[in-house]
Amino acid sequence: MKSSGKNAFKSIKPAWLLAGLALLAAAWFAWAGVQELAFARLQSQVDATRISAGAEAVSRVQKAISELEGRRSRVALATALQREDQASADDVIKGAWAAVEAVEWHDPGLDEPYADPKAFGYGKLGVLELALQDNTTRAAIVKDAGAPRLALAAPVLADGRVLSVVYVRLPLETVTAPLASAELSDQSYLALRQGRHSVFERGDTALANSAEYGAVPLAGTRLRVVAAAPAGSGGMLTHFLLAALSLLVAAGLLLQPHLKLRRKADGDEAPGDTADAGPTLAELQASGRIKPPEPEPEADGMQKPPMPPAAAASRTVLDRSIFRAYDIRGVVGKTLDEETARLIGQAIGSVMQAQGAKAIVVGRDGRLSSPRMAAALIDGLRRAGREVFDIGEAPTPVTYFAAYQLRAGSCVSVTGSHNPPDYNGFKIVIEGETLAGDAIGNLYERIVENDLYLADEPGLASKREITEDYVNRIAGDIQIERKIKVVVDCGSGIAGAIAPQLLEAIGADVEPLFCEVDGNFPHHHPDPSDPANLRDLVNVVQRVDADLGLAFDGDGDRLGVVTKSGEMIYPDRLLMLFAADVLERNPGACIIYDVKCTGHLAMHILRHGGSPLMWKTGHSLIKAKMRETEAELAGEMSGHFFFRERWYGFDDGLYAAARLLEILSSRAETPQEIFDTLPKGVSTPELKIEVEEGRQYTFIEDFLAKAKFEGARLATIDGLRADWPDGWGLVRASNTTPVLVLRFDAKDEAALTRIKEAFREQLLATDSSLKLPF
């Protein structure tokens, strides 16, 4: 009997065990449901806090803006400024406004801020520019006096003329106080953001990345209030239903013993081991990261020339004029020859030696002189003990790419860019930095002072093929969504060796035009910034019924675009399209443009949530500014585009073309219809006045000293740009050829004519011998 009772107990044990598990499951599901209910309540509280704190912050900022609006309109302020009575002007702004920490006055040209924008503060400069764009009071958070502050800026007008721009600094608490005092759980997050940066934040910062949904913007600024709460699974009802179901299962299992029959024979009992059955989880195998292959230490075709004689560098007389603002460029046979190229190579190698850089990539364009210029340059680099990867003929952007792909970090592109066939030169990057200004001059000084490093053994040289990697890298990231037919005009430049292949790889239907590489440039000059060089492209686009025409310069780092109607889409308008696309993924990003770009561009960038910054013309200068400001995108009126978002930050006309087709293919409208939506005024292309070598620089010095433009805001960061409310004009010295570069832009033909006449008068007053192209 005892044995029989014992067996009966064993027979019901699994049921009790399963019932206990079901009860535990019911308890867990019930607890999870309660947690989801708590998450929902917390989310509701956070939403309410975001709305209320945002509304109060908006009210405070608008109150400050309205206060300054009222004060800047007072007659007493204009009178004080006209009398140059700054103390009285300060009183008008600060009087009975206790929150004001500081007041500054700046001339409409912002000459002082632009003299050293880094020291002045890019944020302060930006809010001043915003105010001048539309002659209104603007607000932003800037770093001032060593900490974030609320900054206000507004132009002071008299008879439609800007007398001065006032800058008012207020405590950050002016706008952050509502957020600081709001009721907030430690489990949630609340922040004030400007662009991508959190100016003020509270709570659990781990939630920061999920806080943008439902953001409350502060009108008239780039500020917004964001908030987040921990995310539940959203299955509150499901959890409660599963808890009820688990209770039913437990009840059924507990009733199971009453249905069991006792076995009479001890030998008939079966082992009670079924309770151990159950599913198992397979272990996940963690895969290791695949490391890219290291560059081979040797390669087929490696050369080891005889050691150079241990003698001083050649005493070749150098023409200082070829060492320009952002590259080296001269006329082959006159100011540039093979011995000069060899010395330049050794000078570059000497700088690399001083910086500890060992390897360098050399590519060359399709000019007739490029093979021998590249060979001499490589010889000089090897004399300095550098290891050289020779990639042969390649567009300049491909050479830049090779420096990353081969992990060299340094490169030289042997190219004359868009200049005539008898020109050639060198674009130089050392350890990721494009040489410009004093760094270019330093190479000249090294050569003339014979400060050249001579290695005990020459560096190794090997040939590498990089084109396929370049095409695959871009095509692996960009595939257009619908077929676009494009005509590609490379003007017989080196871009013709790769542009059709690249654009076909991303899905375009390509019609090549002048894509055979010929250093004589027999069809037209490879300069897409000149409308005359685009006539053939327009004719072929219309003849083959293509959607678009793309043109590249001599080394492929610049892009030009024409539509089926024959319209030339200026690069500053292309930059509007690129900026809007980049800012969708990078709100608040800095976008840089050069002084030749339209005045519509800054406002377009601002409307799309970006931070515009105007800077000097020149690919090296733009890249340096991008590194300094961490800008995601930059562009020049010449057609240079620099993408840091999804790319490497160097100027690349080929990659820009791929990004353009990606954008156009993602929309249902035709390219012409898309371009028609962009802000457009009446403008000229780049106009050029030829002068004697070096005269362009002395002319600009004279022009800055003598020129007067009534009612205009002057910018002198690169030449002279005069901005009126209805348009602007520019004259600057080219750093690549002996010319003066001009451009004009206005809201209508009447304004354009007036601005051109104002510049005509001042140009001829400075030098009556100039032959003006307008």
Helix content: 25-40%
Mean pLDDT: 87
Structural class category: alpha+beta
Quick one: CATH superfamily of the largest domain?
PAS domain
Q: What name is given to the CATH topology of the largest domain?
A: Beta-Lactamase
Low-confidence stretches: 1-6, 261-315
Number of strands: 30
Query: What is the CATH domain class of the largest domain?
Result: Alpha Beta
Strand content: 15-25%
Q: What integer value in Å does the Rg equal?
A: 34 Å
Rough outline:
globular
Q: How many structural domains can be distinguished in the coordinates?
A: 4
CATH architecture of the largest domain: 2-Layer Sandwich
Helical run tally? 22
For the terminal residues, how far apart are their CA atoms? 120 Å
- Main beta sheet: strand number and arrangement? 7 strands, mixed
Catalytic activity: alpha-D-mannose 1-phosphate = D-mannose 6-phosphate
Pfam families: PGM_PMM_I, PGM_PMM_II, PGM_PMM_III, PGM_PMM_IV
GO molecular function, one term: metal ion binding
Pathway: Nucleotide-sugar biosynthesis; GDP-alpha-D-mannose biosynthesis; alpha-D-mannose 1-phosphate from D-fructose 6-phosphate: step 2/2
List keywords for this structure.
Beta-Lactamase; 774 residues; 4 domains; disordered N terminus; 6-stranded antiparallel β-sheet; 7-stranded mixed β-sheet; alpha+beta; single chain; 39% helix; 30 strands; Alpha-D-Glucose-1,6-Bisphosphate, Chain A, domain 3; 22 helices
